[in-house]
Recover the amino acids of this structure.
């Protein structure tokens, strides 16, 4: 991995993130983020890679694989917490989004042999779930986790962390291909903050501390997690959202809690 794991937007509008496996220095996960004004478009076509489009906020007319899916998107502000509209696009299929309001569109990609059809994912079938307790409580939208057979490689979820709470916590790792004990999954975190001028915290570290980076992601920043533990914290008075994208050789999420935090499990 070259350089910091914290990736700042490339621009204020248009394609503000373009994270390919080559850019990230890994093998599986790709992540792009588009910020579109009304009337602006984003598009893509990837051979050998599946895509899940997530309308993080705003509305857009979506076309995928030659199908006109109409205007999608329910929430104009991500912190409304309503379930998102998402679209699965198989390898080799072209997609396009034409924004009808200011729109933030996430493009999540990973390897796939193909064979699945274009599919609208959500808001039907996605509900806000509670995870954790006390100041470890956060709220989850299961877009495409293991229990939903909607992709070949991609695992995608949204997390809302209340002010003053921890998330992706206790610290855990999924960086070894040792199923069913552990799975190797690369991961990206696309962060949003309310208020947007504030910051959160995220630490990415291995047990031996050969990797140990603590970051203060701002609104629209992306954090790369190539290996190791990766807890987040939302400061008092600041709500944190992140969109997680994971992928690896097996579409399963099996993790190991940091041994010092084992007393929190069970």
């Amino acid at each position: 991995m070259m350089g910091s794991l914290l990736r700042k937007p490339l621009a204020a509008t248009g394609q503000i993130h373009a994270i390919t496996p080559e850019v990230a220095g890994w093998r599986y996960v790709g992540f792009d983020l588009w910020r579109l004004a009304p009337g602006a478009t984003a598009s893509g076509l990837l051979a050998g890679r599946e895509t899940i489009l997530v309308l993080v906020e705003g509305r857009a007319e979506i076309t995928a694989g030659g199908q006109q899916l109409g205007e999608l998107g329910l929430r104009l502000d991500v912190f409304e917490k309503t379930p998102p509209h998402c679209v699965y696009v198989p390898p080799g299929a072209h997609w396009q989004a034409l924004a009808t309001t200011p729109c933030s569109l996430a493009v999540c990609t990973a390897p796939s042999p193909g064979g699945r059809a274009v599919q609208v994912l959500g808001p039907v079938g996605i509900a806000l779930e509670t995870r954790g307790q006390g100041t470890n409580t956060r709220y989850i939208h299961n877009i495409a986790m293991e229990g939903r057979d909607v992709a070949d490689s991609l695992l995608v979820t949204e997390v809302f962390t209340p002010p003053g709470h921890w998330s992706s916590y206790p610290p855990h790792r999924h960086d070894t291909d040792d199923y069913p004990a552990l799975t190797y999954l690369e991961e990206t975190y696309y962060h949003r903050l309310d208020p947007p001028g504030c910051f959160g915290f995220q630490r990415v570290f291995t047990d031996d501390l050969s990797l140990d980076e603590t970051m203060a992601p701002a609104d629209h920043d992306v954090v790369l997690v190539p290996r190791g533990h990766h807890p987040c914290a939302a400061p008092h008075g600041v709500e944190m959202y992140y969109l997680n994208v994971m992928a690896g050789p097996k579409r399963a999420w099996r993790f190991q809690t940091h041994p010092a935090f084992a007393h929190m499990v069970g």
In short: Residues 110 and 160 are 24 Å apart (CA to CA).
